[in-house]
Amino acid sequence: MTFQLGSALLDACVLAIVDKEDAYGYSLTQQVQSVMDISESTLYPVLRRLQKVDYLKTYDQPYQGRNRRYYQITEEGRIRLMELLQEWQMYKQKVDCVLLGGELNG
Questions:
Q1: CA of 17: how far to CAs of 23, 35, 53, in Å?
Q2: The domain spanning residue 63 has which CATH number?
Q3: What are 20-72's pLDDT values in tens digits?
Q4: What values do phi and psi take at 60, rounded to 5?
Q5: Residue 47 region, left (φ>0) first, then alpha (ψ -120 to 50), else beta?
Q6: What percent of the chain has a predicted confidence (pLDDT) above 70?
Q7: What's residue 36's pLDDT?
Q8: Per-residue confidence at 1, pLDDT binned at 50, 70, 90?
Q9: Nearest-angstrom CA–CA distance, 81 and 1
Q10: I need a labelling partner for 14 at 20 to 30 A (CA). Which of 35, 63, 84, 86 fits?
């Protein structure tokens, strides 16, 4: 079963991946696809948007005779990731409460 969740979760996944280590587009796509059903053509506009708002920056590195573009998180990106993680925890707690029973706190 696939749950349709918004762009904020996709942003959080991308930022979390590049927070651990710099990554190139195809590698990012593979890692995000392990948790969300997206295509490469969906991810690249997200990467450009995150770059435009200074959450990511890029650099090129030679690989097998070609340049590979790597994405790296910025300090602004880390701040945004922390905000998204806090929002995710609150959202997850509310969904867990509804699905699993219990009381909502907050």
A1: 8, 12, 18
A2: 1.10.10.10
A3: 999 999 999 999 999 888 888 889 999 999 999 999 999 999 999 999 999 99
A4: -105, 145
A5: alpha
A6: 91
A7: 86
A8: very low
A9: 26
A10: 63
For the whole model, what pTM was predicted? Answer: 0.85
Q: Would residue 86 count as lying in a domain?
A: yes
Tell me how many domains the chain contains. 1
For tokens 């990554």, the residue is: 23
In a domain, 1, yes or no: no
Positive or negative, the CA dihedral 71, 76, 81, 87 is: negative
Domain range enclosing 24: 7-100
Q: Residue 55 in contact with residue 12, Cβ under 8 Å?
A: no
d(CA 54, CA 70): 15
